[in-house]
Write a structure and sequence with these properties.
Layout (H helix, E strand, L loop, with lengths): L17 E2 L2 E2 L1 H29 L10 E10 L5 E16 L8 H6 L1 H14 L7 H25 L1 H4 L16 E6 L1
Antiparallel strand pairs: 1-2, 3-4, 4-5
Helix pairs in contact: 3-4
Length: 183
Amino acid sequence: MFLNSPLSSPKPSAFCTKAYGKTNPAMQQAEQQWQKQAAWANHENDDTIQHEAAHSGPYTGGTSYDYQTVQMRMPDGTLRSKTYAAGGSRPIHFPALKAPTTAAEALALQPVISNLKATTAAALGPSHPSGADFGVAKTAQSLAAMVQQWVAKVFSPQSANKPNAASQGGATPQPRQRLNVMG
């Protein structure tokens, strides 16, 4: 027998897409089912990546993804698989904050307030924010409100006649917080 002759190749199985010139209905049905599964996996992957990209902000770190694989054994015995991003997270690093005691310190907190507002917007950026996203937004809003109160206190008329807040046991520095946003 010669290697490349028709006699040397085995007969195609009944499950092959084309068996002796006829299309196998089982293979066609399996192919359609696989195309639906692969399209679903692509959609999930795109949604996850868009969701995490919407979280970009001044205090966010790089994105990490959780992957899953969908598999299907075809009638001809081949195994098809598609890996997709099923979830993701982005770390949030809130800055260490200290109540200002001087006008210069209060003015230096203005960019922090802007960044905390941007972090709130980034947490709520996806079209369907998760519970963790809402939690990060609430934390950023609370921190921004606290810093705004500190700044307002420094510039209020009553503070001009009082010693600085630190000497009166005013607000204490907040510890650095690190949260992961699970989208």
